[in-house]
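User: Here's a chain of 462 residues. Predict its fold as tokens.
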Amino acid sequence: MGVLVAAAGVVLTTLLIVPLKASAPVESLGVAYVPTVLLVASVWGGALGYATALLSTATFNWFHLPPTGRFHIDESENWVALAVLLVVALVAGTLAQRARARAREAEQRRAEADLATEMARLLLRGGGRLAETLPTVSESLADALDLPFAAIELDHVSPGEDTVTFALREEGRLIGTLVLPASTSDERRARIEQHVVGSLEALLAAACERDELLGDVVETAALRRSDVLKTALLRAVSHDLRTPLTAILTAAEALRSPSLTPDELDALAEDVGGEARRLSRLIDKLLDLSQLEADGGARRPQSCSLSEVIEAAVDHLGLPIETFRVTLDEDLPEIHADAGQLERAFGNLLENAARFSGGHPVSVRARRVGDRVLVRIVDRGPGLPSAGAERVFEPFFRGDASPVARGSGLGLAIVRGFIDANHGRVWAESVPRQGTTFVVEFPFESPGLETSESSRSGPTVR
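Assistant: Prediction complete.
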């Protein structure tokens, strides 16, 4: 393309000079070839520009400097005109070539600066560990350098048949390796080593330090949380576990008395059984809380009926039938969740509501509302303090509204853990001295939830 443009430019300029010779000396018209030389040199490089300059000089001599039609000059002023044309054309080509090279260098520097900025954004932004970020950075690096692939590894990598490597160091210590295709040209390798490797070393060193600090922060937070949990567990063991154990031991000592009547024996046996069941529930809650703290509530999801889960939770509590007034819509969709975890969660919610209901029935209503399933558990107890609606889900938090009915403070924390683990949401709504409503929500669009194609009908009242 450049050759065609050069040839066409020389031809057109030669034709243009013909009418101009009538109004200007022919010796001064050689500069008309300079624009063509500038154009070719600036766009297609200095070599073609120099060739265009020589072609222009030869054409000017052949067609316009007498004697025309041959490469010969009789008059000295024509020699000067030809020499001036050649010098001006060569100088113009050189200047155009330099301008083109500087423009290309500036463009490369701009691209390298943009690349450094992008790598800094990807490597130093918050969230995610360094090992998870490196594939994205490598892909961005390959796109910016127009290479088939690029990889940044955090350890030493030896060059292979199809790869070339650059060691990334920080204060003499190897922190990673940049791997590029072996087909990368020597010129590009030199430029990458000179302008990219240095900035990548600095950014990778900063990212490694940030990763270490982030790990320290996470570990510190985990240790602090573990200390809080251990303290709370010790408190539970020292009080909540000791209370039923003391009652059981006291009843066991009393059973040794030979003067007990049958009614007193039955009462003591009932006390032992009740305290043992209380102790068993507390141990179950401690185990559930430990599971949630350890692995976030690892679950075994499967399709399950929310109605069956709630009914199983009510039956498992073994409380009098009049304790709960359950209303379940028959069009409740099945959900993809761990039925065992949800049963324990609803069991804790129902047990908590029954404890604070003040002898009134607890209302349990489950229905489909738009794209959600809502379960409301309403008691008519003393309600929560104004600041307790959210804190009630914290481990070992106990409201002070009813000092008579105090639990371990674990049940609602387990509720939130199991509900969250199964893609649900739970919250409390309460007005002091007017009861409390716990709302559990499962949105249909949540991952793991599936709707069943049951026909819509009236609710089942239990």
